[in-house]
Write a structure and sequence with these properties.
single chain, 5-stranded parallel sheet
Length: about 140
C-alpha cells in the first residue's frame, strides 16, 4: 500500500471546505479512510490545522475535526536528525524541510501538497492532490 504524506493545505481544503480545492483533497482523504492508501502527517500539521480551524470556526469544531482526522491519518515522529538535516538543507522553509526529512525517514513515497514548489529539494515524489489522483487512477 502506498504511504503518502499529506500537507496541511490539503487537510485544510477538506476541513474548511475550501473551493475549488475541496473535491480532489477530499478524495485523497477518502482513499486513506478506506485504507487504499496509508496517510501520514506531522504533529506540526495538526498544530497548524488546529490553530487555523479555531480561528475560522471554533475550538470545538477544531478539536472534533482533529479527532476525526486522527482516525484517518497516522502521525510521523520528528527527531534530532530531522532537525539537523533541515538546518543544513537547501529548503527555503524550515518547517517544510522538517516534514520532508521525517517523511523520508519513515518510508513515505509521496508528498501531497498544493505547494509543490516548497518541496523542490525533496528526494520524494511531490504531487498536488489532482496530479496524484490522476497518477493513482492510472496505476489502479
Amino acid at each position: 500500500m502506498k504511504r503518502i504524506f499529506i500537507d496541511s493545505d490539503v487537510i485544510l481544503d477538506v476541513l474548511a471546505q475550501r473551493q475549488p480545492f475541496y473535491f480532489a483533497s477530499a478524495q485523497i482523504m477518502s482513499l486513506c479512510e478506506n485504507k487504499q492508501l496509508e496517510g501520514f502527517t506531522t504533529p506540526f500539521v495538526f498544530a497548524n490545522v488546529y490553530y487555523l480551524l479555531n480561528k475560522l470556526r471554533s475550538r470545538e469544531i477544531a478539536e472534533t475535526s482533529l479527532r476525526k482526522l486522527r482516525l484517518i491519518l497516522d502521525v510521523l515522529t520528528l527527531n534530532g536528525d530531522h532537525v539537523d538535516r533541515a538546518l543544513n538543507s537547501t529548503f527555503s522553509d524550515f518547517e517544510d524541510a522538517l516534514k520532508n526529512y521525517s517523511a523520508e525517514a519513515c518510508g513515505i513515497e509521496i508528498i501531497i501538497t498544493r505547494n509543490v514548489s516548497d518541496y523542490k529539494h525533496s528526494k520524494l515524489m511531490v504531487h498536488t492532490p489532482l496530479s496524484f489522483l490522476k497518477l493513482h487512477k492510472k496505476n489502479s
